């Protein structure tokens, strides 16, 4: 069975291959989100509840939410658009125990189907990660290198405008 992150090109467009070593669960309005779940903007108005695995409260994590398909999958010149950032999340808790450095901006695609990617990183120490200056043209790869972060988990959902129809338009596929 193939990895959904590979099949959706999250591993390639957003992340390098990594070994998922940690669990985290994403809930929108008490509904567990799985890889590839289809959600409309009306279902993601409010930030999700996210539970972080682990038991060591002395280990901290950073969570980001990015859109690699902004502003459209056929022309993603704002890739990776930054929707949310929470740092200093203790293991075994949820994001409400962390520091929200970039406020949640609900996904609201205007054209095509957008992959909305959650990435969970293990931090070296508390208060060691800082937000980017701008939301557009963010890079999960550069971010991890800059702050010496290890990717421990990732997941994604698909989102398109309320009246959207049709498939993903992607160049070179």
UniProtKB/TrEMBL annotation:
InterPro entries: PEBP, PEBP-like_sf, PEBP_euk, Phosphatidylethanolamine-bd_CS. Pfam families: PBP. PANTHER family: OS05G0518000 PROTEIN, PHOSPHATIDYLETHANOLAMINE-BINDING PROTEIN. Belongs to the phosphatidylethanolamine-binding protein family. This is Uncharacterized protein.
